[in-house]
Amino acid sequence: MREKLRWGIIGAAGIAVRAVMPAIQASETGMLQAVASRGIDKARAVADKFGIEQAYGSYEELLADPNIDAVYIPLPNHLHREWTIRAAEAGKHVLCEKPLALTAAEAEEMIDACDKAGVVLAEAFMYRYHPRMEQIRSLIESGEIGELRAFRGAFTFNNAGDKGNIRYREEWGGGGIYDVGCYPLSAARYFMGKEPEAVTVHALFSPEHGNVDMMASGLAEFPGGVSLTFDCGMWADFRQNFEIVGTDGRIEIPHAFIANGDDAAFDVITRDGRRTERPASVNTYTLQVNEFARTVWGEQSPSFPADDAARNMKILEACLESARGRTRIVLEGDHSR
Questions:
Q1: d(CA 35, CA 27)
Q2: Phi-psi category of residue 151: left, alpha or beta, with phi > 0 → left and psi -120 to 50 → alpha
Q3: Do strands 30-36 and 5-10 pair parallel, antiparallel, or not at all (unpaired)?
Q4: From CA 120, how far away is CA 93, in angstroms rounded?
Q5: One Pfam family this chain carries (predicted)?
Q6: What is the domain range of residue 194?
Q7: By C-alpha distance, which of 115, 92, 126 is closest to 5?
Q8: What is the mean pLDDT of the chain?
Q9: How far apart are CA 100 and CA 36, in angstroms?
Q10: Are 289 and 27 in contact (CB under 8 A)?
């Protein structure tokens, strides 16, 4: 029987404690080997919660541990580049929270460092591992809803009262576009199978929240006249939906990005009527962890190679540039895949 992938957690962020660490424990492929925080007391408290033997009061100590195969990095966005590169240089495989970096150039640097070190790098974008994503894409390719015409997506929540939140630090890569706008943009890219040609975004920048984008509405232009209209933000009522519009029908996904249980259902509407598809209940975080391990072991190719994260990062950068400059940004390069 194969030994499990031994994980080290760099930072005791909420997403790690709430979702990813339990997913590793529940997985077929991984085990929690160690956790590190900026102080030993916090690290030890998290280690005790999960029954982990090893706790470290610094990230450097964790990277020096020879008993760790891979690390998960849930640190603030501006620290992703540094600690991914340092982990790669220490010979650790890296699962890094989204967005992968602050810029596409940083993402490319991280990819190059991991390639040079011979380690796997993946962006932790859990929703994409739900089997319904492939199911929906197959449904689109079948022609049941006709030719693609448009996407509509939204991901918003209201956390504006928490003025000290790390998402409200511009220099740390804060703002709604990076935090939740990445979801509808990545979903449209996935279902379209192509890259946008241009983006235009209008945003609310709040002086109360470090001048980050607290709400944004945008248009992403894909080849063939197909577009994504989206809104995202951290100062609006909670929503997370996605719609795919074709010439002969549409697909509505009411819980598009956070769906780990029975809320993964989606509707297919055609001239024949409406039907509800009910995918199996899964934990997308566990599926993500299992695929990562199998990629490390060479048992499969990654569903989402690291360069996909760099492409998404390029679009996020352009969205923010558009919002700040109140202008349409044309994306250079090859838009096919």
A1: 17
A2: beta
A3: parallel
A4: 5
A5: GFO_IDH_MocA_C3
A6: 130-282+311-330
A7: 92
A8: 96
A9: 20
A10: yes
Q: Which of 4, 98, 163, 314 is catalytic?
A: 98
Are residues 180 and 323 located together in one domain of the fold? yes
Hunting for tokens 């024949």 — which residue is that? 272
8-state DSSP, 173? T
Q: Residue 193: name the closest of 288, 109, 308 by CA.
A: 308
Q: Report which residue type is found at 268.
A: V
pLDDT band at 337 (very low <50, low <70, confident <90, very high): low
* Environment class of 61 (CB within 10 Å of its CB; exposed 0-12, middle 13-18, buried 19+): middle
Cα–Cα dist 295/304, whole Å: 11
Q: Where are the alpha helices (DSSP H) in the chain?
A: 14-15, 21-26, 40-50, 59-63, 80-89, 104-117, 131-141, 176, 182-192, 284-296, 306-325
State the number of CA atoms in the 13 A half-sphere of 258 facing the CB. 10
- What are the pLDDT digits (tens) for 100-122? 999 999 999 999 999 999 999 99
Assess whether 21 and 143 both reside in one domain: no
What CATH number does residue 138 fall under?
3.30.360.10
Residues 13-38 have a mean pLDDT of 97
Does 49 qualify as catalytic in the annotation?
no
Maximal C-alpha separation, the chain: 61
In whole angstroms, give the CA distance from residue 84 to residue 121: 8
Domain assignment present for 98: yes
Q: Note whether residue 335 is domain-resident.
A: no
The C-alpha angle 104, 109, 114, rounded to 5 degrees, equals: 125
Beta strands at 198-206 and 329-330: parallel, antiparallel or unpaired: antiparallel
Q: What SS3 string covers 261-310? A: CHHHCEEEEECCEEEEECCCCCCHHHHHHHHHHHHHCCCCCCCCCHHHHH
pLDDT band at 333 (very low <50, low <70, confident <90, very high): confident
φ, ψ (nearest 5 deg) of residue 215? -155, 140
Collapsed DSSP state (helix, strand, coil) of residue 163: coil
Same domain, 227 and 165: yes
